[in-house]
Amino acid sequence: MQFSFVLPSTIRYGSGVVKELNQIIDQLGAKKIMFICDKGIIDAGIYTRVKALLADDKTCVVFSDIEANPKDYNVQNGAAFARDNDVDLIVALGGGSPIDAAKAIAVVAKQGGEVRDYTKRAIGPDCLPIIAIPTTAGTGSEVTFSSVITDTKENFKFTVKSPAIAAKVALVDPELTYSLPASITAATGIDALTHAIEGYTATCTEPIAEALGLYAVEYIGKYIERAVKDGNDVEARDGMMMGSLLAGLSFSHADVAGVHCMAEALGSMYDRPHGLCNSIILPHLMRENLPYCTAKYARVARALGIEESDPEKAALLGIEKIQSISANIGLPAFKALAIDPKDFRKLAEMSEKNGSNPSNPKPMTADDYEALFYKIDAL
Amino acid sequence: MQFSFVLPSTIRYGSGVVKELNQIIDQLGAKKIMFICDKGIIDAGIYTRVKALLADDKTCVVFSDIEANPKDYNVQNGAAFARDNDVDLIVALGGGSPIDAAKAIAVVAKQGGEVRDYTKRAIGPDCLPIIAIPTTAGTGSEVTFSSVITDTKENFKFTVKSPAIAAKVALVDPELTYSLPASITAATGIDALTHAIEGYTATCTEPIAEALGLYAVEYIGKYIERAVKDGNDVEARDGMMMGSLLAGLSFSHADVAGVHCMAEALGSMYDRPHGLCNSIILPHLMRENLPYCTAKYARVARALGIEESDPEKAALLGIEKIQSISANIGLPAFKALAIDPKDFRKLAEMSEKNGSNPSNPKPMTADDYEALFYKIDAL
């Protein structure tokens, strides 16, 4: 085995650390700040609250035209906005969409062209520096080097990936999640669990990513039900934020896998929330993978608190536990996504073509994905 | 809990990766290379082998006057040598001593003065870049930001610590350990286990360090006996190198604790090999700590393959397992270090004063350390 491990982001973690924002901006020597967020962050008052932390020597502009499953034109508009306002630092504030979009904006603002081209084009070091502040415990995007963007002409998601676009500082403050509604806590939480499990089991994973992914499973398993049940359970919110961070560190150094292949296809064609798609699909794809990574799924089960020495039994109990957690926290069934079965073939083909498909423990063909779409639609 | 996590080193891991050295030097834009190693590395032919990997456009000088428990004058001489030869990059090749010394030389060569002063003096960013190539599976120094140096006037060890002195690249190639003799494999291997356990249990630890430390315990537990028994067991050598790396990542982001406090005192006064001191002391200090971190020691035991659901019993079985491993791989008893009991008081006082003493799970006074020295001397 050979692998490389690099962490371009300095992580600052803990309740209240967002208050260090002004000081961190000073350390980075920036004066003209561009906040990137979405309407939800504005409406929830989080942007106002965070902006108020900045000293008077900074000027701020805000770009909030970021949609869920961020679109290529969101990036182009954001990059033009950054250039027009001559900003020297981005504060990305929100869930995965604003943070992913910020990474793409950071490179396009400085290196020009169309964001779509950066899947092939070399990414130079000259990107706007980013401070990423997650407001959900799910994305992990604050520590990954990738940005998943939707091509709106051809309706598919593509990934821009480079350590150069990673956040300089990930400012991870669980307090920002205290006001998240239960449904978003649930979907983003199982999204983080998906990152953890896929990072741990991806065919291309390595031991550092495995260690972090497996530990993330423990945190999420321990705290997700509590965090959904009582949003003011400070320990649970803290544990979920930690689980999401560990999971982000894991999959960014390994890969995601089949769950993301299916979820990104759904996100591209139907614009459904990414975390929700992942969280609905996770246990079903795990059943497909079971014979291909029994020992690892048994470890996942143990991390979820299951004491069973037979690996096959343990692995299955683990999957059942994830399904029972999902039911307990109110995640809907696949039907709720309202996907027309006539699109299953196309969605399956998109899933197979996804760059992360080879990372899935079971080698999945379009036929396999199609059969799985039908199967979970019939449940 | 609040913490920061930064990893200044890019890790490149795997069998054969040392062959990428020339390319990595080119990426760092260096031409005049200073190798830092010790006599053992020269005698084993490792320096010649690694130097041969460099292309003709580089010039090399070598500084091999690094002693075990590297001395302050080793650092001053090395820094003068670096300046005299106007080098622009250090390749640190060896166990913990050359790599620790290299980190101190990197700062003194550029920022001047006495190395001792950098325990108090601010360390600026201007340090010679280092590529660290470990030749033992034990030190973890290739990914830590600290350098432990012996003050030869006052006979104590001090630590210079800053992300600025960390290696830019850690080139971690298990093949370089294939020729290590069994006794060094044994002592450095339990040294790595010490890093893993202290990183996991330090009072100041955090979840990223915990995840990495605990996973390191698994690797080391699984492979140490095989690696000592058969140095050509490639899988075991690989596993030990991975365990050492994971352990280094863990303790550099948490801390070491009581074992190191005692071992560094022994190294200061008696110049005994650091890894050997750690490995002899480890299980004895764990018995002291047991009531203070039972749950975590139970996890350590599980990582060592022990299936026992009662935490207290499991923790004890884990300590016994470490003692049985140590015996199996031929580690000597404390008596072999030939320490005069009249020095136990002084050694105990030095242990208490060590900066890592507050990180030990059990709050240890000089009296506690003294009693422990007597206890393990009587075994």
Which SSEs are present, and which pair or pack?
Two copies of one chain form a homodimer.
Chain A: E1 2-14, H1 21-27, E2 32-36, H2 39-43, H3 46-51, E3 59-63, H4 72-84, E4 89-94, H5 96-111, E5 130-134, E6 146-151, E7 156-161, E8 169-172, H6 182-201, H7 207-229, H8 234-253, H9 258-270, H10 274-289, H11 294-303, H12 311-328, H13 344-353, H14 366-377
Parallel strand pairs in A: 1-8, 2-3, 2-4, 4-5, 5-8
Antiparallel strand pairs in A: 6-7
The helix-and-strand class of chain A reads alpha/beta
Overall mean confidence score, pLDDT of chain A: 96
CATH class of the largest domain in chain A: Mainly Alpha
**What's the count of strands of chain A?**
8
**What topology, given as strand order, has the largest sheet of chain A?**
1-8-5-4-2-3
Q: Helix fraction of chain A?
A: 40-55%
- First-residue to last-residue Cα separation of chain A: 40 Å
Order of helices and strands of chain A: EHEHHEHEHEEEEHHHHHHHHH
Q: How would the global form of chain A be characterised?
A: globular
Integer-rounded radius of gyration of chain A: 20 Å
Major sheet description of chain A: 6 strands, parallel
Query: At the fourth CATH level, what is the homologous superfamily of the largest domain in chain A?
Result: Dehydroquinate synthase-like - alpha domain
Measured by DSSP, the beta-strand proportion of chain A falls in 5-15%
